[in-house]
Structure formats: C-alpha cells, structure tokens
Amino acid sequence: MKQSQLFTRTQKEISKDEVSINAQLLIRAGFIDKLMAGTYTILPLGLRVMKKIEQIIREEMNAIDGQEIFMPTLHPKENWIKTGRWDSMDDLYKVKDSSGREMALGPTHEEVVVPLMKRFISSYKDLPFAAYQFQNKFRMELRSKSGILRGREFMMKDLYSFHADAGDLDAYYEKAKQAYLKVFERVGLKNETYLTYASGGSFSKYSHEFQTLTEAGEDSIYVCERCRIAINKEIIDDLEHSCPECHEGNLDEKKAIEVGNIFKLMTKFSAPFDLKAKDENGEDIGIVMGCYGIGLGRLMGTIVEVLHDEKGMMWPEAVAPFKVHLLSLGENEEAQKIYQSLVEKGIEVLYDDRDTSAGEKFADSDLIGIPYRVVVSKKSLASGGVEVKRRDESESRIVRTEELSNILK
Amino acid sequence: MKQSQLFTRTQKEISKDEVSINAQLLIRAGFIDKLMAGTYTILPLGLRVMKKIEQIIREEMNAIDGQEIFMPTLHPKENWIKTGRWDSMDDLYKVKDSSGREMALGPTHEEVVVPLMKRFISSYKDLPFAAYQFQNKFRMELRSKSGILRGREFMMKDLYSFHADAGDLDAYYEKAKQAYLKVFERVGLKNETYLTYASGGSFSKYSHEFQTLTEAGEDSIYVCERCRIAINKEIIDDLEHSCPECHEGNLDEKKAIEVGNIFKLMTKFSAPFDLKAKDENGEDIGIVMGCYGIGLGRLMGTIVEVLHDEKGMMWPEAVAPFKVHLLSLGENEEAQKIYQSLVEKGIEVLYDDRDTSAGEKFADSDLIGIPYRVVVSKKSLASGGVEVKRRDESESRIVRTEELSNILK
User: Where do the domains of chain A lie, and which CATH numbers do they carry?
Assistant: First the structure.
C-alpha cells in the first residue's frame, strides 16, 4: 500500500489523559483512535494486525476441532436470570426496548451457547465438540486507564467445549492449553508468557490463565522458572508460596497481563438450562463444559507493551501490519519499481512515497514498527542498491536490489 | 469437513412462528438459530456463507480504494445530540452505565466516523478517501417477521467517502454503483437485482438502492426492463410513472428486497461536526460525503429467497458453504479416499460419512443446497465411478473417479 493513500497519519503528541504505553503508541502511529474511555476505533494499520491475530487464533482453534459460529450481542434477560448473573454481575450493560423488554449486552456467551446446544445435543454420541466465535464483548468498565488492555467493548475469541464426562473435558482442556501456548508463541510472546494457576471458582480447584510479563500488567504472578509456570497472587497463600508442579518455594513476584484464560465450567451452566444427553443405557447425563477466552485487542496491546523501544513499536513478523516498510528518499522512480516487484512477489509492503523529509520518514517508520525497513535513495543506489535494516537492528546494510526479495522471503 | 463431526444437524419441522422462507430453510438446515425475534446465531454452515459474502464485498470495496476499519458499537450521546438523531431516531437503542452516562448502540456510524476524520483531514490534499467496516448494527425492530432480512442486530458493511467537492463525490458515487453491481453479480443475484431510484432526502434529488426481485420483498418497485433500472414506489408519483433514464412509461410493479443502498450525504453530517479542510487558497471548505451500505445477513437471506425450490436451498458456487457434498451410501472406504483426494486438491467438501439412510442423506443434501452432489455407493462403483448431480439438475450422471476433480475444477 502507498502511504500517501493511507488516510491516517502519525502524531507527535496526543492527549495527556492517555497514560498507557500501548494506547499512546497505537494512537500516535494511527493504529487506533479513542472514541471515549475504553472505546476505540481500530484504524487500517491496527486492523491489519487484529486480522492477523484473529487468523492465528482461528487456525489454532480449528486445529483442536473448534467450529466457528457468531452469536448475538443482545441477550434475553430470562437467560441471565436463569444463571443468576442478571443480578450478580455488576458490569453487565442492560438495555430496554420500547416494549419494555430488557436485554443484556453480552459480556460472555454461556447464556446463549448453552440453550443453543439443547437443539443439537440429545445423545452421548453427539459429544464431544467445541464451538467458538470472534465477537465484541461489553463490560461496564468506568475507569479505563490501561488503553486497549481493558475496554468497555472489546473483541474476544470465546470457545466453549461440551463433554459427556469430566475425563473427556480434562483431555480436551490439555489440548486447549497447548493450542493457547501455540497462539502466544506465534504472535511473538513465547518467552514472556506463562501458564498460570489461578482460582478455580466453585467447581474446579484451579483455572489457568496465560500471563505475559510486563511492567504494565495489572496482575501479580509468582514465576517458577524451572517449570515455566506461574501462580496468580490470588492463590499463592493457598499454595503456601510453592510451585504446584515441582513444589519449589523459590518464586519471583512479577507484573503481568492476563492474555488468555481457560476454565473448567463443569455443569455450572448446563445445569440451569437443563442441558443433558442420554448415555449408552438411556440414562440422563449432565453436560460437562469448558470455556476458553482470548481478548484480541488486549493481545495487540500486550504485544506493544512488550515489544517497543523509545522510538516506537516493534511488531513480530507474524502480526505486523506489513512485512516491509519501503522508504523513498527523493528517488521515486527506482523505489516505485522495487515496490511493484515486491508486491508482485506477494510481499506485503507499505511504501512511503510521500513528499516529506527523510527525518520524518525515519521517525514514522520507527514508530509504526514494521519488521523490515528498506530505504531507496540516490546515496543507496550509488552504493549499489538499497539500505535494509530490521526494526530491532541499529545498523543498516546495503543490499543489491536483485537480492532484496530473497532476503525478505 | 466430515458431516459426522459437524455439531449442527438438520430438522424437519421448526416453530410455526417462523413465517419467512429464508428463516425456515436456514434454521431447518442448521445455518442459523433464533435466539429471539430478529436475533440469530450464525452457525458453522451459515458462517461459511457469511464469510464468503464478506470477502466478496471486501474485495470490491478495496477495488474502489476503501480502507477497512472497525468502529465501536457504543456511541457517546453527545455525538447523536449534535446531529439531532438522539431524539429523532425512534429505533435507536439507548444504554446507560452506572455513572449515568448515556450511550447509543450504533445503528449506523456517521456519528463516529465524522468526528474521527477531524483528526486526519486538514487540507484538500488529504482528500478524497473512503473508509469502511463490517460491524454489527442495532435497530429496535419490535416486530420482526422476515427472518434474517430485518433484525434487531445485523452485520453490515458501511463505507463512507470524503470529498473536497460535489463533483468529486459524483465521480466516486458512480464507481461505488459499479462496485455494488459487481457484488450482487458475484453472489449470484445479477439477473434479479436492479439499480433503483429512491428518495434522496433533503440534500440530493435521488439516492440509489439495489433491489432484488422476489415475492418475499417488503418494497414495491417499478421496473424498466429497457434500462435495467427500477424506481421505488415512494417516488413513482414524483416521476409521473416514467423511467428517469429513457422516460418510458411502461413500467411493471414488482415486489423486491433492498439489498444495498448508496447515498450522497453532501455536508449533512460534516457540518454539525465542523469537519472541513483548507482549499488551495487557504479558505475553509465543507467536506462532502457519501455513504454506502450492504447488510450481509439480509443478502444471505435474499439469496435463499431467490434461489430455493421445494426441497431446499440452492447456493451459487461463490457463496456456498462447500463446493461439493460427498455422500457415502454404505461404501465408506472408497468415499474416504475420494474425500481425501478432493481435499488435497483444495476443493471444499462436506463429506456425509454418517451412519444414516440414503433417503435422509439425499433429503439433507437437497436442503443444505451445496452446488455439487457426489454419491459413492456399491451401485455407482459397479457402474464405473460416482454419481454426480448439480443441485439444479434433476438427473445424475456417472463419472469415473479419476475424472471427478477435473469436473469439479
């Protein structure tokens, strides 16, 4: 894409009420725009990142036999009364239509997915299976200070699994754990992300979170480097400050962001909706469930918190808005040819063809944080080609134009 | 995909309160589920159709330089007060948080996209450009009788274009018109869909709708076959019952569904937000806008209304959930091999490997409406291969297994 045609542009300064690094950088670089606290528009560069994150998650959910669906935002009050959450959930948005009918704006979808499955589950033979969606969720966050890490509305992947017994749920839960670790590895957060034991609620001893280390985190976790797991501070006392796997007590307290969580719901939500199946003997069995969430905007924000420097963002290739940022410094003819040839080879290029200073182009390129910067100038051409620098390198090198696409492959 | 693994299944009967053909067939075939009136979950088969429709629209919007974004659902009341629509729009859902702050659930996004663009437009040089999104919209429809043609919430593509003057808008509007016609052609509704003159509101003489002929339509249009255009009944009197292009008066009244509309907003929304730019002389100019909408669920429902028979749906290849429905009649070994080989060739196959009767498999296949049905049975193998039938053909023919993929290419 030609940068001159992109309707967004970068900004040097933004409003002082934006205190989080992720929102500051994403707003300055033109990836997002703040409509009101906790409510953001995703702009073209940001949406390219979100769509790549979405596709990575989709592939990993499909790999564990998740079937994609799309559920509504407006939920009937009756369903929320049934689970008791109409009154117990403080951050639930409620809306009324002119006939007086009350509805909830879905903050999660157990109240929809469970009654839905009554239509499709009657026998143990219908089990197990899992369904997931990408959907905007709504939560009444009044003080949102952490940019896109916590919002009034936020894009989330939520997967729900359905099983005939707890053993089958356990087996699937382990597969989901591995799928989650793969997602965080693919988006570039492998080293910083820990499977974390957390409170299990009334039905399970533990649930599991995936926590990514960064000073911007709102959570405190205790890390066991030996097992590469962590424990959420909320249960560290129950565990007597030791690792639940190796029982070692030498754990480091660190700040982290919860980038995903998985939960054994057991029959907590199937029971109120009377979702059950016949077993081999024709007896009723209650359906055992798991749920598995990842916030996409939060994940994008976490990547920014972890991977940036004082100049701007540093996107991992798998989720970068483009692979290559091609900068033309007053030398448009050769740059245009290179742009065409890279695009023809299927390489995603943002081509800075704007009529602005070299200094501005370099600063914008560092801020936007595309993995490869390729500079075409009279000077580079005189030296035999183009200047190539990865965003995380400090020095560029000259590469012959003919060899460029091999390096970028 | 193996049909035995699909969590949905077909139904013979559904609730009698579902009067529209589109909802009846889509629910029976397991493409959608009704949560409450006008509110549907999109199930795996339905989502495959929706995603294909989405991708066709995305490609055509990108082809006219649309830049994809994603705006919030929760809109600040202030923005809707500014345009006067907080009070004038009857079907606006309003929601309040616990601090007393009121918000609208977006039924359309002028109130968000216009203030957003104040950040990016300052000079005529920033113009023209266009931004679009796929977003769930919310409208307080109390009596929804037309299935997914009209809902309380519905997925919509909305594009907004920004121009320095009316001439530039006119030129873009013509391009958008052609892009819309391409969309309806690609989804299989070319012959039934008419560019339709409709009321322009306070700023333009006409707007344009795209109306698809079907008895299920809520609109009445007058068709001029000579010009292949139509006139919405609402303005036929103003036009003295004649075609605005050839001035012929011999027009047929027909029922149709509005599948898209495009509108010259001029400065109607830029003015209240004071969205303007400097011209070449440094003088302020008001930004001239157009908006362009297509409802994706409505489009899916319209395809069902137009393309079905008494047995079920008949999907055009471009939007079908799968290209091939492979039915194994007690002959799983050979069918399994054929399934593998088609999947390896990149052909999308739904493989009915279930242990049910031939009659049920044929009935389900007709209901689901995948373009090609391929039957593998002892009988077909004895005759030298597999039975192939297009959904719109009445007779099948025997095709040698080795030739199957050539026929399906």
Answer: 3-309 (3.30.930.10), 322-408 (3.40.50.800)
